[in-house]
Design goal:
Length: 176
C-alpha cells in the first residue's frame, strides 16, 4: 500500500507494477510466466532466458525495464540481430528512449531507464504502461524468433563468445 504521500517501497512497487502490467495486456495475448526476486520482476513466454524485467535500483535512482536475453551468447546475439533487423518498426512503436545494448560480455537487452527521486504510484503506472506496451509490441517477434533461434544457435560449451561486428548503432558497452 502506498504511504500517505503516494510513495511505495521497492518491493511494493514491483508487485504493483506486476498487477498493472497483467491488466494492460491484450485479452488474446498469452499470460506470461512470472517470477519475483525480492525487487526484480521477470516475465516470459516459455523461455526464461528471454524475459521482460523490471527492477527499481534505489541507489541509482532509476527503474530499469526491458527485454533481456540471458541465455547462451550465440542465442542472445541471434535475438539482437532479429531486433536490429526490425529496428525501424520497433523504435517507431516503442519510441527512441528504448536502447538495444550489449549489457555484459554475454547478455543483451532492449531496455529503457525511468529516473526517479522516489517510487510512486504515478511512476509505477508509467513504468507498467511502458512494459505492457513493449510486451504487446515485442511478443509477435519473440514468437517468430523462438523456434528459428533455438535451431540456429546450439549452446556453446563454454558459454563465451567474442561477439560479432553487427550494427553498432544498436549496441553499446554497459558501464560497470
Amino acid at each position: 500500500m502506498p504511504k500517505a504521500d503516494g510513495s511505495l517501497k521497492a518491493r511494493e512497487f514491483v508487485f504493483f507494477c506486476e498487477d498493472q502490467i497483467l491488466t494492460q495486456l491484450p485479452p488474446a495475448m498469452p499470460q506470461p510466466e512470472r517470477r519475483v526476486r525480492w525487487t526484480m520482476l521477470q516475465m516470459h513466454f516459455g523461455n526464461q532466458h528471454v524475459h521482460f524485467e523490471l527492477q527499481p535500483q534505489m541507489g541509482r535512482g532509476v527503474v530499469e525495464a526491458g527485454l533481456h536475453f540471458e541465455g547462451p551468447v550465440e542465442a542472445n546475439d541471434a535475438w539482437v540481430e532479429l531486433l536490429a533487423a526490425n529496428a525501424a518498426d520497433l523504435l517507431g512503436e516503442l519510441g527512441p528512449v528504448w536502447e538495444l545494448e550489449e549489457w555484459t560480455s554475454t547478455w543483451r537487452r532492449l531496455h529503457r531507464p525511468f529516473p526517479f527521486d522516489r517510487l510512486t504510484v504515478e511512476l509505477a503506472n508509467e513504468v507498467s504502461g511502458e512494459v505492457a506496451r513493449a510486451m504487446t509490441v515485442l511478443h509477435p517477434l519473440i514468437e517468430e524468433g523462438a523456434a528459428a533461434i533455438a535451431v540456429a544457435t546450439p549452446a556453446s560449451p563454454t558459454g563465451r563468445h567474442g561477439g560479432s561486428g553487427r550494427d553498432r548503432r544498436w549496441r553499446r558497452r554497459a558501464r560497470r
